[in-house]
Amino acid sequence: MESPNEERTGACRRVWRWLKSFPEKLWQKIVEFAWRLVKLGKEDPRRIVHSIKVGLTITLVSIFYYFEPVYDGLGDCAMWAVLTVIVVFEFSVGATLGRGLNRMLATLVAGALGVGAHRIATQLGGIGEPIVISVFVVLIAAIVTFMRFLPKMKARYDYGLMMFILTFCLISVSSYRDDDTIHLALKRLTTIIVGSCASVIMCICVWPVWIGVDLHNQIATNLEMLGSFLEGYADEYFKVSDEDGNSIDKSFLEGYKSVLTSKPSEENMANLARWEPRHGRFRYRHPWKQYLKVGTLARQCGYKVEALHGYLLSEMQTPLEVRNRLMEPCTMISKESSKALKELASTIRKMTKSSVPDLHVANSKAAAENLKSVLKSDWSKDVDLFEIIPGAAVASVLMEIATCTQQIAEAVLELESLANFKRPKPRVTPEDHLQVIQHGINGPHDHVITIDESSPTSGRNENSSTITR
Amino acid sequence: MESPNEERTGACRRVWRWLKSFPEKLWQKIVEFAWRLVKLGKEDPRRIVHSIKVGLTITLVSIFYYFEPVYDGLGDCAMWAVLTVIVVFEFSVGATLGRGLNRMLATLVAGALGVGAHRIATQLGGIGEPIVISVFVVLIAAIVTFMRFLPKMKARYDYGLMMFILTFCLISVSSYRDDDTIHLALKRLTTIIVGSCASVIMCICVWPVWIGVDLHNQIATNLEMLGSFLEGYADEYFKVSDEDGNSIDKSFLEGYKSVLTSKPSEENMANLARWEPRHGRFRYRHPWKQYLKVGTLARQCGYKVEALHGYLLSEMQTPLEVRNRLMEPCTMISKESSKALKELASTIRKMTKSSVPDLHVANSKAAAENLKSVLKSDWSKDVDLFEIIPGAAVASVLMEIATCTQQIAEAVLELESLANFKRPKPRVTPEDHLQVIQHGINGPHDHVITIDESSPTSGRNENSSTITR
């Protein structure tokens, strides 16, 4: 047993040790945090640019405040321009434009209404004035707050409705102390227009981040993720139980997971993209809805891929005989669907029409037919049903994926025409087609190498005549 | 051919007709909009209450502005209290508290920093002052804007970081015109505390909406949706191709779709719920993460349910013989998993421990074993593999669902202990258990009817000893 004295010394030592190690621990935390910030910047350098843009715009607008003539005109209200930049400037052009327009329009309408409310209230004068204004405020605030729950309003005008309440309250309530409400409303409108325009101009002119492009790329990435999974899946499924190859990188088997839950982010992006003006090859009314359609089909394909993934981990193993017979057609479907999806992704990314995906879709459909006939053929009678199930289930899901890929290809085709994708320089000859169909299992780049530049033109329609779409 | 005169008259008529019908069309639009609002209120009357609460709080706080003594102390800054209410008051307590605390803390820290920046700048004086302040503003705004990209920061402190930039700029920039920065910072802090506290108090005291309760209910609803699907699925699958019964209501087959994309909304709710104080049976540190875990497992089950749904629409039909042999065990798994999920949902909803789900989980596991042996048994040799596939695939997915249900039950059990669910008055006797296991296909309410209130106590542990968990 320690004496009380020794105990106290022990406690002191612990406290002392903690205090001694505290600066070191704090330093570690700071270093860790800094590293996380560095990583964040490396992941997407546009974030750094955005931060600098925000800082500069705020400073630029705050210069108004320092200039005597501007300050004499606007007074303390000049600060609103600075505050507007802070709340309006978002990462993407779409979001900034959406907030800016919402803020300006809401200020205009609410300012006018506020002035009107003040006029009505002053007719009464005395104690009646604040009462009438309070009644107006309760009514307007409650109704507009309720309107914010409407899904359509929430998606596009949520910020505007909040700004509407804010400006209305600001103008009508402060009219009690300052009779010159029109002047106040105008000053507020001017400063907010200055702040919003500064943000929008800075956002568009200096290294702009178009949310429409991000949506465009995300849809392509999602298709690529599904393609990557399917590319490696068949090898993984038909080999893994023979030999255990856990050492190789299998990250491609997990990439598709983000596709499954991408719905809300895609919808949000499409909502914001609608605010964006024409940029690059994206028009003002670019068919964003069609992107959502492709996204939805990709997710449905993702659910099937999730089922396939489940069979990788499943305990039930298919007997070797069954595996061997299923392997070829299954691999073919998987690889061809993968190529089709990757080509579709590249079609979207490059915004060029391409007939290559159709070939792979046709190949994968053909492989599905082949698989059907393999399954319909005679099987040795001593195979029991239970053992066949996992393999059969994988085969069945793969057949569905072939159908799903075709649907995605159709949606992308629709997107191509809606978004006016360019027709590329003709590069694939009918001979190449035949080759691809015959050696469908090879990579998509094989026939790119065998391209005959001098070959006669072969448009999409002639090429895809073999494909039912 | 019409003469130009007749043409003009025709055009005039069309314009006149349009003008005549315009008020009617406008009225239609207004009525439609009003109906949509009424529907919105009926769906969730808490929305109406929230809107009225917001309106009243704004008016209450604006009364400060009308009172001479308060106005004399705060001046125009009193308006900030009103604006704070508008931007802080959210639908749920969690969101309001989160925004309120973020706003107050950010104002405190940024106000102090702003005053400090002003002190440093005034040391230089003259043209140096705005330059030093501008440098500070660029630096602080850029760094804090960049920090907003950190996922952890974004989830909980996004609004606070924005408010930090806002207050810092407000204080430091306006210090150029008004040397009494400390006074300004204090006024801002005071008004923001008043506005935030008014919002939080109103939000908590008058018919509060706890986002934690919403999350709690949503997780339960998700399990119910999956349960409803599985309840009707087997009947639907094994009957639909025999007779075409499209006339009955099949909405239960679609309800689960919302489960698939619920991830972001659940995560958001969990983030907001962490701000909420103790309320009802929810503690301050309620295990919200465990809800997310149950939600993730429910989604995984949802993906399998999506696969099952696919087989309903699939063209390939299993031959009658196969169907008949698979029907019983498949129906059993489906119904028992359904009951287990629904009982788990009710366990969560009522926050009471229950051993009933375990029974159904055990039953569904037993049925899965039964299905396995049916599949392993001899099948007539003239059944071809291709025809068996859809049925076999459904069987295989159902077996996975049995496993998945067990995992969900385990996660809910963990939740029960983490969230201190109550132990209910003992209601199920070991005899009842036996009965449930024997007549597992009957509804969960059967043994509720046979409850023997006078039966000896039987805790969860003894009951669930037969179940592997």
From TrEMBL, chains A, B:
It is a multi-pass membrane protein. The keyword Membrane applies. The chain crosses the membrane at residues 48-67, 79-97, 127-147, 159-177, 189-210. Residues 447-469 are annotated as: Disordered. GO terms for biological process: malate transport; monoatomic ion transmembrane transport. Residues 452-469 have a biased composition (Polar residues). InterPro entries: ALMT. Keywords: Ion channel, Ion transport, Membrane, Transmembrane, Transmembrane helix, Transport. It is found in: Membrane. GO terms for cellular component: membrane. It holds the Pfam family ALMT. The keyword Transmembrane helix applies. PANTHER family: ALUMINUM-ACTIVATED MALATE TRANSPORTER 10. Belongs to the aromatic acid exporter (TC 2.A.85) family. This is Aluminum-activated malate transporter 2.
